[in-house]
Amino acid sequence: MREETISESIEDLLGDTGKYIEAKAELWKLKVADRTTEATASIATQLILVFIAIIALTLLNIAVALLIGKWLGELHYGFFIVAGFYILLGIIVYAFRKQIIQTPLYNVIINKILK
Question: Alpha carbon of 57 to those of 3, 62, 93: distances in Å?
């Protein structure tokens, strides 16, 4: 009688262990889905904001180029000056790309995933 009770207890324990493992696997799937959805929504929002900012910045640059060109007497001078500014800015960003772009971007992505 005692042996049957022990074997039943072992069977119950094995059954409960299997259910626990299944529950943990399901919880892990839900956590991954939640984090993936949150990261995707965040990226989509950021892309929309960047797109709007690019449009606004483009229009602002055209206005600044026209204004500078008007001050200098030739419109194309304004566009050359604005282009030169962006070439200089591009060189600076390229030189410091790890500190300015890569490291902060890695940190944001890792924080979103590990949150």
Answer: 80, 9, 17
